Amino acid sequence: MKNRTKDDSSQSLPRDLIGFIFSFLRYSFLRIRQFIIYMWAFVIWIIMLLGDTKGGIVKRMFWGRSSFYKSAFQFSVGLLTIVIAIGGLAGRLNLFSSSAFEYLEFPSEQLGDADYLDESASIQAIVADSSLSRGFDVQKYVVQKGDTLASIADKFGISTDTIRWSNGIVGDYIKVGQELEILPINGVIHTVKKGDSLESIATKYEAAMQDIFDINWLESKVLMEGQQLLVPNGRMPQPKPVVKPPVVTASSPPPTYSGGGGGGTGSFVRPCGCGRITNWFSAWHGGVDIAQAGGCTTVAADGGTVTMARWYGAGGLQIMIDHGNGFVTLYAHHASIYVREGQKVTRGQPIGYMGCTGRCTGTHLHFGVQRNGVWVNPLAYVPI
Protein backbone atom coordinates (compact mmCIF):
# COMPACT_ATOMS: atom_id res chain seq x y z
CA MET A 1 0.00 0.00 0.00
CA LYS A 2 2.84 2.28 0.88
CA ASN A 3 4.61 1.60 -2.41
CA ARG A 4 1.45 2.39 -4.43
CA THR A 5 1.10 5.81 -2.79
CA LYS A 6 4.68 6.58 -3.67
CA ASP A 7 4.09 5.60 -7.28
CA ASP A 8 1.00 7.84 -7.54
CA SER A 9 2.97 10.82 -6.16
CA SER A 10 5.77 10.31 -8.64
CA GLN A 11 3.29 10.17 -11.56
CA SER A 12 1.43 13.39 -10.55
CA LEU A 13 4.65 15.43 -10.60
CA PRO A 14 5.08 15.33 -14.42
CA ARG A 15 1.41 16.16 -14.89
CA ASP A 16 1.76 19.24 -12.64
CA LEU A 17 4.90 20.34 -14.49
CA ILE A 18 3.23 19.96 -17.87
CA GLY A 19 0.21 21.89 -16.61
CA PHE A 20 2.48 24.70 -15.34
CA ILE A 21 4.31 24.90 -18.68
CA PHE A 22 1.03 25.09 -20.62
CA SER A 23 -0.29 27.75 -18.23
CA PHE A 24 2.92 29.76 -18.55
CA LEU A 25 2.85 29.56 -22.34
CA ARG A 26 -0.80 30.54 -22.43
CA TYR A 27 -0.09 33.48 -20.09
CA SER A 28 2.88 34.57 -22.25
CA PHE A 29 0.80 34.32 -25.44
CA LEU A 30 -1.96 36.44 -23.93
CA ARG A 31 0.57 39.06 -22.79
CA ILE A 32 2.24 39.17 -26.21
CA ARG A 33 -1.15 39.41 -27.91
CA GLN A 34 -2.15 42.22 -25.57
CA PHE A 35 1.11 44.08 -26.33
CA ILE A 36 0.55 43.75 -30.09
CA ILE A 37 -3.02 45.02 -29.73
CA TYR A 38 -1.89 48.09 -27.77
CA MET A 39 0.90 48.80 -30.26
CA TRP A 40 -1.60 48.57 -33.15
CA ALA A 41 -3.89 50.99 -31.35
CA PHE A 42 -0.94 53.35 -30.84
CA VAL A 43 -0.15 53.27 -34.60
CA ILE A 44 -3.79 54.12 -35.38
CA TRP A 45 -3.67 57.05 -32.94
CA ILE A 46 -0.43 58.35 -34.50
CA ILE A 47 -1.98 58.21 -38.00
CA MET A 48 -5.01 60.17 -36.77
CA LEU A 49 -2.74 62.75 -35.13
CA LEU A 50 -0.64 63.20 -38.27
CA GLY A 51 -3.78 63.71 -40.32
CA ASP A 52 -4.40 67.10 -38.68
CA THR A 53 -0.97 68.45 -39.63
CA LYS A 54 -0.64 66.84 -43.05
CA GLY A 55 -2.25 69.74 -44.92
CA GLY A 56 0.09 72.37 -43.49
CA ILE A 57 3.20 70.24 -44.11
CA VAL A 58 2.24 69.47 -47.70
CA LYS A 59 1.45 73.12 -48.42
CA ARG A 60 4.78 74.26 -46.98
CA MET A 61 6.65 71.67 -49.05
CA PHE A 62 5.01 72.81 -52.29
CA TRP A 63 5.56 76.50 -51.60
CA GLY A 64 9.28 75.68 -51.37
CA ARG A 65 8.98 74.25 -54.91
CA SER A 66 12.39 72.54 -54.72
CA SER A 67 13.18 69.03 -55.96
CA PHE A 68 14.18 68.00 -52.41
CA TYR A 69 10.83 68.98 -50.97
CA LYS A 70 8.93 67.16 -53.71
CA SER A 71 11.04 63.99 -53.29
CA ALA A 72 10.55 64.07 -49.51
CA PHE A 73 6.80 64.49 -49.99
CA GLN A 74 6.54 61.59 -52.44
CA PHE A 75 8.57 59.32 -50.13
CA SER A 76 6.43 60.23 -47.08
CA VAL A 77 3.15 59.64 -48.92
CA GLY A 78 4.43 56.32 -50.28
CA LEU A 79 5.50 55.15 -46.81
CA LEU A 80 2.17 56.18 -45.31
CA THR A 81 0.32 54.33 -48.09
CA ILE A 82 2.26 51.11 -47.34
CA VAL A 83 1.45 51.34 -43.61
CA ILE A 84 -2.26 51.88 -44.32
CA ALA A 85 -2.31 49.03 -46.85
CA ILE A 86 -0.73 46.61 -44.38
CA GLY A 87 -3.21 47.68 -41.72
CA GLY A 88 -6.15 47.14 -44.06
CA LEU A 89 -4.85 43.68 -45.05
CA ALA A 90 -4.45 42.71 -41.40
CA GLY A 91 -8.01 43.80 -40.72
CA ARG A 92 -9.33 41.81 -43.70
CA LEU A 93 -7.54 38.64 -42.56
CA ASN A 94 -8.76 39.16 -38.97
CA LEU A 95 -5.22 38.80 -37.63
CA PHE A 96 -6.27 40.55 -34.48
CA SER A 97 -9.44 39.55 -32.70
CA SER A 98 -11.96 42.39 -32.76
CA SER A 99 -13.15 41.36 -29.29
CA ALA A 100 -9.78 42.34 -27.86
CA PHE A 101 -10.40 45.99 -28.70
CA GLU A 102 -13.36 46.24 -26.38
CA TYR A 103 -10.92 46.69 -23.53
CA LEU A 104 -9.24 49.67 -25.21
CA GLU A 105 -10.64 53.08 -24.43
CA PHE A 106 -10.10 56.00 -26.83
CA PRO A 107 -10.61 59.52 -25.50
CA SER A 108 -13.69 60.91 -27.22
CA GLU A 109 -12.23 64.39 -27.57
CA GLN A 110 -9.65 63.08 -30.03
CA LEU A 111 -12.38 62.20 -32.51
CA GLY A 112 -14.92 64.42 -34.19
CA ASP A 113 -17.61 64.28 -36.80
CA ALA A 114 -15.13 65.35 -39.48
CA ASP A 115 -13.13 62.13 -38.93
CA TYR A 116 -15.90 59.92 -40.28
CA LEU A 117 -17.55 59.70 -43.70
CA ASP A 118 -20.80 57.91 -44.38
CA GLU A 119 -20.45 55.08 -46.92
CA SER A 120 -22.87 56.87 -49.23
CA ALA A 121 -20.74 60.02 -49.40
CA SER A 122 -19.58 60.91 -52.91
CA ILE A 123 -16.09 61.83 -54.06
CA GLN A 124 -17.37 65.30 -55.01
CA ALA A 125 -18.61 65.87 -51.46
CA ILE A 126 -15.26 64.84 -49.99
CA VAL A 127 -13.30 67.14 -52.31
CA ALA A 128 -15.66 70.08 -51.72
CA ASP A 129 -15.17 69.71 -47.95
CA SER A 130 -11.39 69.66 -48.19
CA SER A 131 -9.42 72.78 -47.28
CA LEU A 132 -6.91 71.88 -50.00
CA SER A 133 -9.46 71.59 -52.81
CA ARG A 134 -8.40 74.96 -54.29
CA GLY A 135 -4.71 74.27 -53.71
CA PHE A 136 -4.02 77.56 -51.91
CA ASP A 137 -5.48 79.59 -49.06
CA VAL A 138 -6.65 83.21 -49.23
CA GLN A 139 -6.83 85.12 -45.94
CA LYS A 140 -9.23 87.95 -45.19
CA TYR A 141 -7.95 91.14 -43.54
CA VAL A 142 -10.00 94.15 -42.43
CA VAL A 143 -8.16 97.45 -42.72
CA GLN A 144 -7.54 99.07 -39.31
CA LYS A 145 -6.89 102.69 -38.43
CA GLY A 146 -3.31 103.63 -39.29
CA ASP A 147 -2.87 100.82 -41.84
CA THR A 148 -1.20 101.46 -45.18
CA LEU A 149 -0.67 99.13 -48.10
CA ALA A 150 3.02 98.97 -47.23
CA SER A 151 2.40 98.06 -43.55
CA ILE A 152 -0.13 95.37 -44.49
CA ALA A 153 2.26 93.95 -47.09
CA ASP A 154 5.06 93.81 -44.49
CA LYS A 155 2.73 92.11 -42.00
CA PHE A 156 1.93 89.26 -44.38
CA GLY A 157 5.29 89.11 -46.15
CA ILE A 158 4.01 89.91 -49.64
CA SER A 159 4.34 92.85 -52.02
CA THR A 160 2.01 95.83 -52.22
CA ASP A 161 1.38 95.00 -55.89
CA THR A 162 0.07 91.56 -54.92
CA ILE A 163 -2.50 93.22 -52.61
CA ARG A 164 -3.45 95.76 -55.30
CA TRP A 165 -3.95 93.10 -57.97
CA SER A 166 -6.03 90.72 -55.84
CA ASN A 167 -8.31 93.54 -54.59
CA GLY A 168 -8.56 95.83 -57.64
CA ILE A 169 -6.89 98.75 -55.85
CA VAL A 170 -5.64 101.67 -57.94
CA GLY A 171 -2.82 103.63 -56.33
CA ASP A 172 -2.38 103.38 -52.56
CA TYR A 173 -5.86 104.37 -51.35
CA ILE A 174 -7.51 102.07 -48.77
CA LYS A 175 -10.10 102.87 -46.11
CA VAL A 176 -10.77 101.68 -42.57
CA GLY A 177 -13.13 98.69 -42.50
CA GLN A 178 -12.29 97.62 -46.07
CA GLU A 179 -11.90 93.84 -46.38
CA LEU A 180 -8.85 92.72 -48.32
CA GLU A 181 -7.98 89.35 -49.80
CA ILE A 182 -4.42 88.36 -48.83
CA LEU A 183 -2.64 85.77 -50.98
CA PRO A 184 -0.16 83.38 -49.32
CA ILE A 185 2.68 84.41 -51.66
CA ASN A 186 3.45 87.06 -54.23
CA GLY A 187 1.47 86.60 -57.40
CA VAL A 188 -1.84 86.99 -59.19
CA ILE A 189 -5.18 85.13 -59.07
CA HIS A 190 -6.40 84.21 -62.55
CA THR A 191 -9.93 83.03 -63.36
CA VAL A 192 -9.79 80.57 -66.26
CA LYS A 193 -11.62 81.70 -69.38
CA LYS A 194 -12.54 79.80 -72.52
CA GLY A 195 -9.43 79.09 -74.57
CA ASP A 196 -6.99 79.54 -71.66
CA SER A 197 -4.14 77.07 -71.20
CA LEU A 198 -1.30 76.78 -68.69
CA GLU A 199 1.10 78.02 -71.36
CA SER A 200 -0.98 81.10 -72.20
CA ILE A 201 -1.53 81.95 -68.52
CA ALA A 202 2.19 81.59 -67.73
CA THR A 203 3.05 83.82 -70.69
CA LYS A 204 0.45 86.43 -69.78
CA TYR A 205 1.77 86.88 -66.22
CA GLU A 206 5.47 86.22 -66.98
CA ALA A 207 5.48 83.21 -64.65
CA ALA A 208 6.72 79.61 -64.69
CA MET A 209 4.16 77.06 -65.92
CA GLN A 210 5.49 74.36 -63.55
CA ASP A 211 4.99 76.65 -60.54
CA ILE A 212 1.33 77.19 -61.53
CA PHE A 213 0.86 73.43 -61.95
CA ASP A 214 2.42 72.58 -58.56
CA ILE A 215 0.89 75.17 -56.25
CA ASN A 216 -2.65 74.58 -57.55
CA TRP A 217 -2.39 70.78 -57.17
CA LEU A 218 -3.33 70.23 -60.80
CA GLU A 219 -3.44 66.63 -61.99
CA SER A 220 -3.33 67.50 -65.68
CA LYS A 221 -3.05 70.46 -68.01
CA VAL A 222 -6.80 70.40 -68.65
CA LEU A 223 -8.41 73.51 -67.14
CA MET A 224 -12.06 74.21 -66.36
CA GLU A 225 -13.73 77.50 -67.26
CA GLY A 226 -14.28 79.55 -64.08
CA GLN A 227 -11.50 77.77 -62.19
CA GLN A 228 -9.32 80.05 -60.06
CA LEU A 229 -5.56 79.61 -60.26
CA LEU A 230 -2.81 81.20 -58.20
CA VAL A 231 0.07 82.36 -60.42
CA PRO A 232 3.20 82.44 -58.20
CA ASN A 233 5.38 85.52 -58.74
CA GLY A 234 3.16 86.54 -61.64
CA ARG A 235 2.86 90.18 -62.66
CA MET A 236 -0.33 91.83 -63.85
CA PRO A 237 0.15 92.84 -67.51
CA GLN A 238 0.19 96.59 -68.10
CA PRO A 239 -2.38 98.04 -70.50
CA LYS A 240 -1.12 98.80 -73.98
CA PRO A 241 -0.09 102.42 -74.59
CA VAL A 242 -2.72 104.58 -76.17
CA VAL A 243 -1.28 107.09 -78.61
CA LYS A 244 -3.66 109.59 -80.14
CA PRO A 245 -3.32 113.00 -81.79
CA PRO A 246 -3.94 116.14 -79.75
CA VAL A 247 -7.54 117.27 -79.41
CA VAL A 248 -8.16 120.41 -81.47
CA THR A 249 -10.94 122.76 -80.38
CA ALA A 250 -12.20 125.96 -82.00
CA SER A 251 -11.56 128.02 -78.89
CA SER A 252 -7.95 126.93 -78.35
CA PRO A 253 -6.31 125.59 -81.53
CA PRO A 254 -2.85 124.17 -80.86
CA PRO A 255 0.04 125.64 -82.83
CA THR A 256 1.15 123.87 -86.01
CA TYR A 257 4.62 122.31 -86.09
CA SER A 258 6.51 121.14 -89.13
CA GLY A 259 8.57 118.61 -87.23
CA GLY A 260 11.73 120.67 -87.51
CA GLY A 261 13.66 122.37 -84.78
CA GLY A 262 14.74 120.27 -81.81
CA GLY A 263 17.58 122.38 -80.40
CA GLY A 264 17.52 123.30 -76.71
CA THR A 265 17.44 127.01 -75.97
CA GLY A 266 18.35 126.70 -72.30
CA SER A 267 15.16 128.55 -71.40
CA PHE A 268 12.29 126.42 -70.07
CA VAL A 269 8.52 126.94 -70.03
CA ARG A 270 5.96 125.36 -67.68
CA PRO A 271 5.29 121.75 -68.86
CA CYS A 272 1.51 122.15 -68.61
CA GLY A 273 -1.03 125.00 -68.47
CA CYS A 274 -2.98 123.69 -65.46
CA GLY A 275 -2.70 122.20 -62.00
CA ARG A 276 -0.72 122.81 -58.86
CA ILE A 277 2.27 121.11 -57.22
CA THR A 278 1.19 118.31 -54.85
CA ASN A 279 4.53 116.55 -54.36
CA TRP A 280 7.87 118.31 -54.21
CA PHE A 281 11.41 117.33 -55.21
CA SER A 282 13.39 115.27 -52.69
CA ALA A 283 16.19 112.70 -52.54
CA TRP A 284 13.67 109.90 -53.06
CA HIS A 285 11.38 111.76 -55.46
CA GLY A 286 13.34 113.05 -58.44
CA GLY A 287 10.87 115.62 -59.67
CA VAL A 288 7.63 117.46 -58.89
CA ASP A 289 4.03 116.29 -59.31
CA ILE A 290 1.57 118.73 -60.89
CA ALA A 291 -2.04 117.57 -60.31
CA GLN A 292 -5.26 118.62 -62.02
CA ALA A 293 -8.62 116.81 -61.97
CA GLY A 294 -9.48 115.93 -65.57
CA GLY A 295 -5.97 116.75 -66.73
CA CYS A 296 -4.77 118.98 -69.55
CA THR A 297 -2.29 119.03 -72.44
CA THR A 298 1.41 118.75 -71.60
CA VAL A 299 4.11 120.53 -73.63
CA ALA A 300 7.86 120.26 -74.16
CA ALA A 301 9.59 122.51 -71.64
CA ASP A 302 12.28 123.21 -74.27
CA GLY A 303 13.27 122.07 -77.73
CA GLY A 304 15.04 118.75 -78.17
CA THR A 305 14.82 115.14 -79.39
CA VAL A 306 12.31 112.64 -77.97
CA THR A 307 14.33 109.69 -76.59
CA MET A 308 11.37 107.88 -74.97
CA ALA A 309 7.65 107.90 -75.80
CA ARG A 310 6.14 104.66 -74.44
CA TRP A 311 5.01 102.77 -71.37
CA TYR A 312 7.83 102.37 -68.88
CA GLY A 313 7.29 100.69 -65.49
CA ALA A 314 5.76 102.68 -62.64
CA GLY A 315 5.84 105.86 -64.74
CA GLY A 316 3.20 104.52 -67.12
CA LEU A 317 3.09 106.37 -70.42
CA GLN A 318 6.08 108.66 -70.21
CA ILE A 319 8.18 110.89 -72.42
CA MET A 320 11.85 111.90 -72.16
CA ILE A 321 13.36 114.73 -74.18
CA ASP A 322 17.11 115.27 -74.63
CA HIS A 323 17.71 119.00 -75.11
CA GLY A 324 21.28 118.55 -76.36
CA ASN A 325 22.86 120.93 -73.85
CA GLY A 326 23.22 118.62 -70.82
CA PHE A 327 19.54 118.89 -69.89
CA VAL A 328 16.99 116.04 -70.15
CA THR A 329 13.35 116.41 -69.08
CA LEU A 330 10.90 113.68 -68.05
CA TYR A 331 7.09 113.73 -68.33
CA ALA A 332 5.32 110.70 -66.72
CA HIS A 333 1.80 109.23 -66.14
CA HIS A 334 0.26 110.43 -69.42
CA ALA A 335 -3.19 109.30 -70.50
CA SER A 336 -2.02 109.61 -74.11
CA ILE A 337 1.09 110.72 -75.96
CA TYR A 338 1.34 112.73 -79.19
CA VAL A 339 4.99 112.23 -80.15
CA ARG A 340 7.22 109.31 -81.10
CA GLU A 341 10.77 108.35 -80.25
CA GLY A 342 13.36 110.10 -82.42
CA GLN A 343 11.04 113.02 -83.22
CA LYS A 344 12.37 116.56 -82.78
CA VAL A 345 10.17 118.98 -80.84
CA THR A 346 10.30 122.68 -80.08
CA ARG A 347 9.67 124.55 -76.86
CA GLY A 348 5.96 124.68 -75.99
CA GLN A 349 4.95 121.95 -78.48
CA PRO A 350 2.11 119.67 -77.21
CA ILE A 351 3.50 116.20 -76.48
CA GLY A 352 0.71 114.44 -74.55
CA TYR A 353 -2.27 114.60 -72.22
CA MET A 354 -2.04 114.38 -68.43
CA GLY A 355 -3.39 111.14 -66.89
CA CYS A 356 -2.87 108.46 -64.24
CA THR A 357 -1.07 105.53 -65.85
CA GLY A 358 1.52 103.42 -64.07
CA ARG A 359 1.72 103.76 -60.30
CA CYS A 360 -0.20 106.87 -59.28
CA THR A 361 -2.98 108.04 -56.96
CA GLY A 362 -4.71 110.59 -59.20
CA THR A 363 -4.48 112.50 -62.47
CA HIS A 364 -1.18 114.37 -62.49
CA LEU A 365 2.09 114.96 -64.36
CA HIS A 366 5.40 113.88 -62.83
CA PHE A 367 7.94 116.33 -64.24
CA GLY A 368 11.66 115.80 -63.75
CA VAL A 369 14.83 117.60 -64.88
CA GLN A 370 18.19 115.91 -65.31
CA ARG A 371 21.37 117.94 -65.66
CA ASN A 372 24.55 116.18 -66.78
CA GLY A 373 23.08 112.82 -65.69
CA VAL A 374 21.93 113.96 -62.23
CA TRP A 375 18.31 114.65 -61.23
CA VAL A 376 17.95 118.20 -59.98
CA ASN A 377 15.12 120.31 -58.56
CA PRO A 378 12.97 121.46 -61.52
CA LEU A 379 11.99 124.62 -59.63
CA ALA A 380 15.57 125.86 -60.00
CA TYR A 381 15.23 125.96 -63.79
CA VAL A 382 11.53 125.95 -64.72
CA PRO A 383 8.88 128.53 -63.70
CA ILE A 384 6.17 126.31 -62.19
Question: How large is the share of residues in beta strands?
Answer: 15-25%
CATH-defined topology of the largest domain: Glucose Permease (Domain IIA)
The CATH level-2 architecture of the largest domain is identified as Distorted Sandwich
**N-to-C SSE string, H for helix and E for strand:** HHHEHHEEHHEEEEEEEEEEE
Q: Mean pLDDT, as a whole number?
A: 76
H/I helix tally = 7
Q: Can you characterise this structure?
A:
The chain is built from seven helices and 14 strands. With 384 residues, it is α+β, with helices and mostly antiparallel strands. The protein folds into three domains: 20-100, no CATH class; 139-232, LysM domain (Membrane-bound Lytic Murein Transglycosylase D, Chain A), CATH 3.10.350.10; 276-380, Glucose Permease (Domain IIA). Strands 5, 6, 7, 8, 9, 10, 11, 12, 13 and 14 form a ten-stranded antiparallel sheet that branches. A two-stranded antiparallel sheet has the order 1-2. A hairpin with an 8-residue loop joins strand 5 (276-279) and strand 6 (288-291).
